[in-house]
Amino acid sequence: MTTLKINGEDKTFDAPDDMPLLWALRDVLGMTGTKFGCGIAQCGACTVHIDGVATRSCVTPLSLAAGKQITTIEGLAQNGNLHPVQKAWLEHDVPQCGYCQSGMIMAVAALLKEKPKPSDADIDSAITNICRCGTFQQVRAAIHAAASA
Ligand code: FES
Ligand code: FES
Q1: For a substitution probing ligand 1, which of 42, 72, 73, 131 has the most ligand atoms within 8 Å of its CB?
Q2: Which of 6, 35, 108, 146 fits a disulfide with 88 by CB distance 3.0 to 4.6 angstroms?
Q3: Nearest 10 degrees: CA dihedral of 43, 146, 55, 50?
């Protein structure tokens, strides 16, 4: 049995230690807000926070996630209030198809925690998520808006 602390709640389930965290989230726990894109740590669609660090869950085995604080897109809003990044995303109409966006938002939320006023260079080096719809300029504007909120 594996126990993970996800969005502040303990979740216990039966799965092998080498199962990727993304598989457990989506297929075992039914938490489908975190997306599968490439499966090889390239696209960022599967990004969650592990102990506050943006992490690609498709290549993170359960053995590395156990005992840590995991936050998924489902847990980013607090007490019914959207996270500032989520608010900026709505205000700037960032999502197009939306597929990449939960991972993008999680990556940006982690960046702003570490660097509350990121420069364009900080954004370019930290946000390497891929968006097939090409929302990158809206993403940049929304990050600066969230940083100023
Ligand atoms: S699905 Fe994990 S980085 Fe693409
Ligand atoms: S909004 Fe469609 S892939 Fe990013």
Answers
A1: 42
A2: 146
A3: -160
